[in-house]
Amino acid sequence: MDHCSCESRKALDTLKTARGQIDGIIRMIEEDRYCIDVSKQILSATALLKKANITILRQHMNTCVTDAVEHGAGQEKIDEIVLILDKYME
Predict the structure, then answer these.
(1) pTM confidence score
(2) CA angle 20, 25, 26 (to 5 degrees)
(3) Is 55 exposed, middle or buried (0-12, 13-18, 19+ CB in 10 A)?
(4) In the prediction, which pLDDT does 3 show?
(5) What angle do CA 82, 86, 15 make, to 5 degrees?
(6) Residues 60, 63, 64, 65, CA torsion sign
(7) Pseudo-torsion of CA 59, 64, 68, 74, nearest 10°?
């Protein structure tokens, strides 16, 4: 993955951390651990997924959207971002 940008690498690392947390959550449930402890871990994994998403969106805005705006085709990219943000805010 030498072609990954710095931002992509950050998102990838965050997603790998979230995957490890999710594996841990699955073990906790299999071991019938305390529900509140499981819930706290789920919230932590959710926060990591959100962080990775923001990193990817930031990269997209700094590359694809910027390039599209410079070439007069920015509205479509801006509309894509607005749709994602609408979903994010739900």
Answers:
(1) 0.82
(2) 100
(3) buried
(4) 52
(5) 95
(6) positive
(7) -60
* Whole-angstrom Cα Rg for the chain: 17
The tally of CA atoms less than 13 A away on the side-chain side of residue 70 is: 7
d(CA 64, CA 73): 10
Residue range 6-89 forms a domain whose CATH class is mainly alpha
Q: Is 78 within 8 Å of 65 (Cβ atoms)?
A: yes
Structure tokens at 90: 């739900």
Count Cβ atoms within 10 A of the Cβ of residue 22 and give its class: 0-12 exposed, 13-18 middle, 19 or more buried: middle
Q: Return the amino acid letter for 44.
A: S
Q: With bands split at pLDDT 50, 70 and 90, how would you rate the model's confidence at 5?
A: confident
